[in-house]
């Protein structure tokens, strides 16, 4: 991943604050900010890590300690709806609000992990030969943290599994790689033995968020996010059952009402079986209000799921394709902070935070300013 930097104006846009606030808060936080070389004005140059450090400082300054911790799954029963792009951007924007974010890649294809700059296919030997840092490689995933993995190898402490692509105050990542697919086989064995594997992730989160296990202390995180694969399997069901909220991105370029109906049915089954279920939010992606098909789909979705349909949507944009070619390899919200797409992502994330009722009114007024 390249080294993206920002001037003060870019940082102000990312954090939704004034340029003067950026300068003042950076000084208050004691951040070590590089200055631009040359004979001209010594402009401050912020790294991505600097920006997240500043966001964390503002979170402490304005008391952005959530009223409650939340668990969120981003899931769509079909591929090609922009789910991983939505996940990576939401995770970054939440951290820019000063929240402590853990995002977990549940897809053995590891698209989210790759989007954060890691290479699940790279061996340590290949990394050394290519002159890449060993941290680029992925050795562990969620499976290595669960008791089920004892049948397949040793359970690892959280510190060995976690990745920090943007430093200590950016979103943290539990990555994925191809052997995560074995976890589903272990869950299937549990199902045959009547052990209710769909509850395994919920138990794991409860233990971690409570801080009872020193090797699995998740208590520092305000929000835990799952990026779930389209597969309709035990792992995905377990993440949904463990979650307070579920975001379902739908592609407005093609009809998605069946996918939302399927997810609503799954949530209904959970409600009837466990009396626990995530609250559903439907996020329109690839949105173009001028297209007749899109308008018809919005009518269908809002009629059937009026409370789930989000007020903010993400428009179709070439910007998403362009960032894939950038050397920086950053999610769009970081790579193109002044773009319309970034504005839309921030607005959608703000709506999610409000739906999750994580912050009190004064904290939202002082800290939740997403331009």
Report what the structure shows.
Residues 70-274 form the AAA domain. InterPro entries: AAA_dom (IPR025669), DNA_Partitioning_ATPase (IPR050678), P-loop_NTPase (IPR027417). It holds the Pfam family AAA_31. The protein folds into two domains: 1-61, Orthogonal Bundle (Multidrug-efflux Transporter Regulator, Chain: A, Domain 2); 65-367, P-loop containing nucleotide triphosphate hydrolases (Rossmann fold, 3-Layer(aba) Sandwich), CATH 3.40.50.300. The strands form two sheets. Strands 6-5-7-4-8-9 form a six-stranded parallel beta sheet, with helices on both faces. A three-stranded antiparallel beta sheet has the order 1-3-2. It starts with a strand and ends with a helix. The mean pLDDT is 89. Helix content is 43%, strand content 11%. The protein has 371 residues and is an alpha/beta fold.
Compile the SSE list and pairings:
Layout: E1 5-6, H1 8-15, H2 19-29, E2 34-35, E3 44-47, H3 48-61, E4 70-74, H4 83-96, E5 101-105, H5 111-115, H6 124-130, H7 158-161, E6 172-174, H8 181-192, H9 200-210, E7 223-227, H10 234-242, E8 245-251, H11 257-274, E9 279-285, H12 292-304, H13 319-324, H14 332-335, H15 340-356, H16 361-367
Parallel strand pairs: 4-7, 4-8, 5-6, 5-7, 8-9
Antiparallel strand pairs: 1-3, 2-3
Helix pairs in contact: 1-2, 2-3, 4-15, 9-10
**Alpha-carbon distance between the termini?**
26 Å
Over the alpha carbons, how many angstroms does the gyration radius reach?
21 Å
How helix-rich are the residues, as a percent range?
40-55%
Give the number of domains: 2
Low-confidence stretches: none
The assigned CATH architecture of the largest domain is 3-Layer(aba) Sandwich
Overall mean pLDDT stands at 89
CATH superfamily of the largest domain: P-loop containing nucleotide triphosphate hydrolases
What's the CATH topology label of the largest domain?
Answer: Rossmann fold
Q: Please tally the β strands and state the result.
A: 9
Relative strand content: 5-15%
What is the helix tally? Answer: 16
Sheet having the most strands: 6 strands, parallel
Helix/strand structural class: alpha/beta
Q: Any idea of the CATH class of the largest domain? A: Alpha Beta
What are the secondary-structure elements, in order, as H or E? EHHEEHEHEHHHEHHEHEHEHHHHH
**What is the general shape?**
globular
Largest beta sheet: what is the strand line-up? 6-5-7-4-8-9
């Amino acid at each position: 991943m390249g080294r993206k930097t920002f001037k003060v104006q870019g940082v102000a846009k990312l954090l939704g604050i004034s340029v003067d606030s950026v300068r003042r808060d950076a000084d208050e936080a004691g951040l070590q900010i590089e200055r631009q070389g040359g004979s001209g004005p010594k402009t401050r140059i912020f790294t991505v890590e600097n920006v997240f450090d500043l966001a964390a400082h503002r979170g402490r300054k304005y008391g952005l300690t959530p009223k409650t911790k939340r668990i969120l799954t981003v899931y769509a029963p079909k591929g090609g709806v922009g789910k991983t792009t939505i996940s990576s951007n939401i995770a970054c924007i939440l951290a820019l609000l000063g929240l402590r974010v853990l995002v977990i890649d549940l897809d053995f294809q590891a698209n989210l992990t790759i989007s954060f700059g890691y290479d699940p296919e790279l061996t340590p030997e290949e990394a050394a030969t290519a002159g890449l840092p060993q941290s680029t490689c992925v050795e562990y995933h969620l499976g290595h943290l669960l008791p089920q993995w004892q049948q397949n190898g040793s359970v690892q402490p959280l510190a060995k599994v976690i990745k920090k692509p943007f430093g200590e105050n950016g979103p943290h990542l539990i990555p994925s790689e191809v052997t995560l697919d074995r976890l589903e086989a272990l869950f299937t064995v549990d199902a045959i033995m009547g052990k209710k594997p769909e509850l395994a992730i919920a138990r794991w989160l409860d233990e971690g968020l409570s801080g009872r296990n020193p090797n699995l202390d998740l208590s520092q995180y305000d929000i835990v996010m799952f990026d779930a694969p389209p597969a309709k399997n035990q792992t995905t069901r377990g993440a949904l059952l463990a979650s307070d909220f579920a975001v379902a991105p739908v592609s407005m370029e093609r009809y998605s009402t069946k996918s939302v109906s399927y997810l609503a049915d799954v949530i209904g089954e959970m409600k009837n079986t466990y009396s626990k279920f995530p609250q559903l939010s439907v996020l329109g992606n690839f949105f173009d209000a001028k297209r007749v098909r899109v308008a018809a789909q919005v009518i269908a979705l809002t009629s059937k799921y009026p409370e789930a349909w989000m007020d903010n949507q993400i428009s179709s944009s070439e910007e998403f394709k362009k960032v894939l070619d950038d050397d920086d390899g950053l999610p769009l919200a970081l790579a193109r902070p002044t773009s319309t797409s970034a504005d839309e992502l921030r607005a959608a994330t703000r709506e999610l935070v409000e739906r999750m009722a994580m912050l009190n009114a004064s904290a939202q007024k002082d800290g939740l300013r997403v331009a």
